[in-house]
Design brief:
It contains 6 helices and no strands. By secondary structure, the chain is an all-alpha fold.
């Protein structure tokens, strides 16, 4: 899945449904370049990438967001996550 496809598919969804869709995308990554694409986008997309990365277990993406210049991206990356079923 490409970043533009994910963004378009979740754009109009309510927050909870959008988060679930992003998490499901994360669980299906399998070497995708989705996170690389989201990391190069604006704040909203980088934050969406955080949900994808957490579901995929991509620690490097989450760690990189700890140093994001935008506090609205950095703050959620500091929150603990759990491995709850999606």
């Amino acid at each position: 899945m490409r970043a533009s496809e994910l963004i378009q598919s979740v754009d109009k969804l309510p927050y909870g449904v959008r988060q679930r869709a992003a998490a499901l995308a994360g669980r299906r990554l399998n070497g995708s370049t989705l996170l690389d694409e989201l990391a190069r986008c604006a704040s909203y997309e980088r934050t969406l990438g955080l949900t994808v990365a957490q579901a995929a277990g991509d620690v490097s993406y989450v760690t990189a967001l700890l140093r994001d210049p935008d506090p609205s991206v950095q703050a959620p990356s500091r929150q603990p996550t759990c491995s709850a079923p999606v």
